Amino acid sequence: MHILIATDTWHPQVNGVLRSILSTAEAARRMGVTVSFLNYEGLRTVPLPNYREIRLAVPRPAEIAERIEAARPDFIHIATEATIGHLVRRHCVARGIPFTTSFHTRLPEYVSMRLPVPERWAWHYLRRFHGAAEAVMTATPALADELTARGFSNVMVSPLGVDTELFHPNYDLDLNLPRPIFLFAGRVAVEKNIEAFLKLDLPGTKLVAGDGPLRASLQARYPDAIFLGMRHGRDLAAIYAAADVFVFPSLTDTFGLVMLEALASGLPVAAFPVTGPRDVLGDALGNAPVGVLDQDLRKACLAALSIPRAACRAFALERNWDEAARIFVANIERAHCRAPMLDTLTPKAA
Question: Smallest Cα–Cα separation from 209: which of 220, 192, 200?
């Protein structure tokens, strides 16, 4: 089986969407599935204003068609809804090629935070974009229910996982900072609501690992917080393990992969009681055994200090990428049972 994943987000970008796409692909390959990517490498791109690390592809439709035909995939999955995703969708619709999609981010809310665009316009675009797919996958049952209520059809749950070999509690890093250490890791941008964390009156140290358009202004307004800048791989994993509580102030994330990374590092989570944290931290009864969810984020931060680190690690060990990839591949197969690819793609050579 060969799955071609179309994605607008790619290196050198660092975000949860890209990490989830790459981790799912790696785990699927361990299952014997061939996974390739249609991304902006080799295509003309332009930078987004105020987002130097983000490139927007501006390809010709013929370039997209050529790449799909050269890949000769069995299945096409569109992971993002920007220019590459749009052109791959258009190619598939025009040729009657079935495809699946993912809903990763709350695009309507993020657009309205930056531009005077009503959320309902963006939701209309997304319903139309995903409506042509055999299935749209999203990370949690709660978001799947919300999308169904908003008029999306054929919604499937495709959970995310965490690399428990990279993220673990046993790194030997002393940050040499006053404890307790409250950590935020992620993109320093408006949608992450980081200021709700930075303005809290907390003991010890507030630590921010990440970069983004708001870093300079937040660093100037909150000089007592320590901004580490962008961190990757083992460097980031060691920082997780050296902290005491992970603070997740976002109100709009559909999942929050960084919470699983923190838990795998033995780090309890403090967050608002909203969809992403409830789904990531909750058990079958909806409780949050490895985190504290409270409208009073300061109260949540202090209460999280009492959660055993071993419990956080054990919780994360049950959420791995191998299981996430198995469900992802099964969803693609199930979605295409209703519309097999047959001869709609360029036939493979004998």
Answer: 192
Residue 1 CB burial class (10 angstroms; 0-12, 13-18, ≥19): middle
Give the separation between CA 83 and CA 126, rounded to whole angstroms. Answer: 13
Report the number of distinct structural domains present in the chain: 2
Residues 248 and 259 sit within 8 Å (Cβ to Cβ): yes
d(CA 230, CA 184): 12
Contact indicator for 186, 326 with CB cutoff of 8 Å: no
pTM of the prediction?
Answer: 0.84
* Least reliable range by pLDDT among 46-50, 74-78, 145-149, 317-321: 46-50
Residue 167 lies in a domain: no
175 falls within a domain: no
Cα separation values, 133 from 85, 93, 97, 136, 323, Å = 12, 9, 10, 7, 23
Are residues 155 and 223 located together in one domain of the fold? no
Is 22 a member of any domain? Answer: yes
Write the CA distances from 135 to 209, 243, 337, integer angstroms. Answer: 35, 40, 11
Do 18 and 154 sit in the same domain of this protein? yes
Joined together, the tokens standing for residue 173 give 């890093």
- Asked whether residue 90 falls in the same domain as residue 61, the answer is yes
For residue range 302-334, list pLDDT tens digits in order. Answer: 999 999 999 999 999 999 999 999 999 999 999
Pick the closest to residue 177 from 252, 243, 124, 91 (CA basis): 243
DSSP secondary structure string, 4-17?
EEE-S--TT---HH
Domain boundaries, position 265: 181-319
pLDDT one-digit tens code per residue, 161-173: 999 999 999 999 9
Residues 7, 117, single domain; the answer is: yes
